[in-house]
Amino acid sequence: MSDIGSRRQDDSDLIRRVRAAARQEQFLEVVSAEEARARFEKHIELKPLDSERVTLAEALNRILAHDVVAATDAPPFDRANVDGFALRAADTIGASDMAPKILTLNAEVIACGDSPTIEVMPGTGTTIATGGVVPRGADAVVMIEQTELIAEGAPRIELRRAATPGQFISYAGSDIARGETLLRKGVRIGSREIGMLAASGLAHVDVVRRPRVAVISTGDELVPPGESLKPAGIYDSNGAIIAAAVVEAGGEAVPFGAVPDDKAALDKAVREALASCDMVVLSAGTSKGAGDLSHAVVAGLGAPGILVHGVALKPGKPLCLGVVGTTPFAVLPGFPTSAIFTFHAFVAPVIRALAGLPPEAAQTIEARVPVRIASELGRKEFVLVSLVEGDDGPVAFPTGKGSGAVTSFSQADGFIEIDALAGALDADTHVRVTLIGAGAAAPDVTIMGSHDVALDVVVGALAERGFSARTLAVGSLGGVAAATRGQCDIAPVHLIDPRSGDYNKHLVTPDLSLVPGWKRMQGIVYRAGDKRFDGRSAAEAIKAALVDAGILMVNRNAGAGTRVLIDRLLGGAKPPGYANQPKSHNAVAAAIAQGRADWGVAIEPVAKMYGLGFVPVAPEHYDFLVVESRKARPAVQAFLAALRDETTRARIRAIGMEPAA
Fold it and tell me: Which of 177, 394, 483, 509 has CB atoms 3.0–4.6 Å from 367's, for a disulfide?
């Protein structure tokens, strides 16, 4: 084939792939979450699986498959509850300090595990240990502390207090009676239930078999954790997240690993999973229209097949649900937050039902959302939030990391729902927050504002002192606003006063004090060896960037202290790339290191971390606004102490910052 023909074929292939990608979601029949759940569950037998017999050691947290009837009494005999003497209560009537009763001791000591051989006759008693078998003739036990041993002559005791029949005796079957229903099916077996089963002499118990759930990740871009990332590759976090979520829901995860975007390979993996597991969960990749590929594979596996492909949720629209024979399957969206949301909404309830667990009861609290949240009409939206304590009750801040962020779910306290018919949630609206996991544990100190790698050092030192912290990266201006509203205890800031040129001092108010943190060098970052920036001063580098339309910058988000510095450097100019506004120094460095931009402004430690060139611009002060009304709190005092601690200061210096004097 000629070069021209080859190029035409390449162009044709590219156009075909672009068209396929553009059509990728056109097969979606978007239904409501309620309709999706109804279709899915209609074809699934939502009842516990068959039973299996396990040892008591393996039974912890399992679900009892059948009622357990006690085969023996517990205790199996009348048992002494104290160390003392077994006797007849009638022999103690009238005993007092003035008229003690004297009993002769039998020639027997009953320890645990001993069978009594001597009957207790009137006027006698037998020495007995706690847990010992009460001998024939005895109907009470007295504590040894209530008696006095008579040393002279035959062994005798002097008793100065009367006993009542049954005193300090546990009768046979008083704890567990033979024939009694000890535990009922459906009970989750904990340590107490293990003890009851063991006390009845059971070494094994029948429990509901845990559903085996196949976990398959798909995508050419996926790399197993522990291996080196390839270009454009990402680690397969979904496989690990979903496998752990399966176990949390009561199932047994069966990892099948990451399968490339190859129809034959994916078909083989899914068929093997269907043959060996009770449920199959795929996490769809995104390369080469892998969502279409997963759909195509599961569509040909058998009836009833795909039941749902598209749900009016955000995140989670591309969800695919179906059943092959009697085995349910789910193809979850590839983004981690979307995958875990849809897992908990549609997959976890099925696993819990098969495992014999009751539906999970959601815990909710009311909170105020301080900012407006835009939403998409026609799709119910779930928004992850972090909770902080405000002056008027809990405040819910959107995490803002998006459905592709792995940390979104782990760092959120809960989520809110925005109705499909709402285009936005207005600021200061009070909403119900559904708590995630065991619920939100209130932090000892809340820190909102600009983030810095050295802040992690101080928070780590705070943790060593036994205090927890919640950090929300909302930018310097966001931190000032939060501190002013009393929504945080401490606000990290680095904002320059345009009039004086001083950092942060202009932010002090009667309600906010300023605590010095450290200085860090801001500068222009670029790929090392780029001759357009190498050897130039900051002013020369900026001038070169502004006159060359081929140089692409990466900016910072509005509200960030670094953005204020950038705008001062640019003097009102908006060069190519100005609209690209990531929210961290790391994102700026990554964009430049990967060739998606040529220059930006970031701190020197991050530039070194990414192997970038660095032109110093100016040192800036990263300080802390402290809410005066909360300054005396132990956790705030511990934070300030950690900030002054020489060990902490040395760690800050080690990453390239200079602590304030």
Answer: 394
CA gap 508, 526 in Å, rounded:
35
The whole-chain average pLDDT of the chain stands at 88
Distance from chain centroid for Cα 85: 56
For residue 317, is it left (φ>0), alpha (ψ between -120 and 50) or beta?
alpha
Two tokens, residue 531: 């001759």
DSSP 3-state assignment of 114? coil
**Helices and strands of the chain, counted as H and E runs:** 17, 35
Q: pTM of this prediction?
A: 0.74
Q: Alpha-carbon distance 605 to 615, whole Å?
A: 12
In this model, does residue 290 exceed pLDDT 50? no
Which of the pair, 382 or 165, is modelled with greater confidence? 165
The single residue listed with the structure tokens 């950038």 is 566
Longest dimension (CA), the chain: 125
Q: What token pair was written down for 215?
A: 């976990």
Cα–Cα nearest to 341, from 316, 319, 317, 365? 316
Cα–Cα distance, 119 to 135 (Å, whole number): 6
3-state secondary structure of 542: helix
Whether 481 contacts 452, CB under 8 Å:
no
CB 561 within 8 A of CB 450: yes
Tokens coding 248: 């949390």
pLDDT tens figures, 635-659: 999 999 999 999 999 999 999 899 9
Residue the block writes with tokens 């299996």: 52
- Phi then psi dihedrals of residue 274, to 5 deg: -60, -35
Task: Specify the pLDDT at position 390.
Answer: 75
The residues, ordered by sequence, that sit 6+ positions from 139 with a Cβ below 8 Å of its Cβ are: 88, 89, 165, 166, 169
- Of 561, 557, 548, 559, whose CA–CA distance to 579 is shortest? 557
Tokens of 646: 């020489």
- pLDDT value at position 509? 96
Give the model confidence (pLDDT) of 244-275 as tens digits.
999 999 999 999 998 888 888 988 999 999 99
Do the strands 222-223 and 234-235 form a parallel or antiparallel pair, or are they unpaired?
A: parallel
Structure confidence by residue, pLDDT tens digits, 143-178? 999 999 998 888 999 999 999 999 999 999 898 888
The pair phi, psi for residue 367, each rounded to 5°, is -145, 160
Pairwise CA distance, residues 269 & 267, whole Å: 6
Query: How buried is residue 642: exposed, middle or buried, by Cβ count under 10 Å (0-12/13-18/19+)?
Result: buried
Half-sphere exposure of 196 (CA within 13 A, CB side): 20
* Amino acid identity, position 137: G
DSSP class of 597: -
Q: Which two tokens stand for residue 243?
A: 């496998």
Q: Are 513 and 493 in contact (CB under 8 A)?
A: no
